[in-house]
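Marked as duplicate of an earlier ticket. Keeping the data here for the record.
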Amino acid sequence: MTPGAKRTGGRKPLRWLLLAALGLFLIGASLAAAFFSSGRWSLTFADERQDQELSLSSQVVWEGATYERDPNVVPVLFIGTDQDTGRTAPGYNGQADALILMGIDTAEGDVTCISLSRNAKTQIEAFDPVTRESEGLQEDYLCLAYSYGGTDRHSGTLCCDAVSRMLGVGVSAYLILDMSGVGALADALGGVELTAIEDVFKTDIKQGQEVTLQGQSALEYVWQRDERDDYSAAGRLARQAQFARAFASQALAEAQSDPAALMELWDVVQEHSKTNLSTNELAFLLASVAANGASGTDGVEMLTIPGELQPVPGRMSQFITDEAAAQEMMLEVFYREVR
């Protein structure tokens, strides 16, 4: 199998499928589920195969109770890359600047977004930048998993593998967004409204200020940090999580009032992103969320993997994950108790 070949989703035209999804939203959830059953089946199969390939158990025993993967909750890894704004060494593919693991509940229509620290250490697969031969697993920063990919799709697969190993949950689907597209996405919603949670380095945005982020200001809010400060990464992570929740909430609310807005937003997403989700998988996820009524802040929950950022002399600061708390979070989002 060639690198990145686990899933073969493409960028086929989605407008007709989105129209179908919106039509099914108006008709009812049961028809949507039936129409997109192939999408649901392929998503479930891909995650089960990921569990097997990485030797992850589909059942977990925790504090005397047994849990199994909830087939209704689909994990999708959102990866924001810094290829335009960051530094890329020869032979490498840039770093993952933002990582958010989404749990999409296709039965209830709710979306849980779990913000991951790029500074967390985990097992990633390294590749020689010249020969592209695998050098095996090594412990390194999560953000560097992306850099070893020969292509964006390979990088997406490597990130999914690294997150799967770190959290013990098989994740096979990804959506890669170049950070330069953040501004365009915010503009597509007419701006993202939020209250700044801290002063933003090299901008006029101050803590407590109510802002409508558009264009460059949206990019700066999720990307800027003072690299001289080891702890600035934690502040940026919190801002990225806040922006993601505000964006998702506004997008869902707008889709509820104007379903055609979903198509317009997806057109913008396609211009700046890559995904291995197939057209029927994407349509199934969109239809499930729309048909089951998730909207506004009630339909989107934002969580952050618990842990602590610690400085490392001569290197990036390291995020020490609270593994027990992270395990409980995974069980809450992606599993159900076996009774």
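See parent ticket for discussion. Residues 109 and 289 are 4 Å apart (CA to CA).
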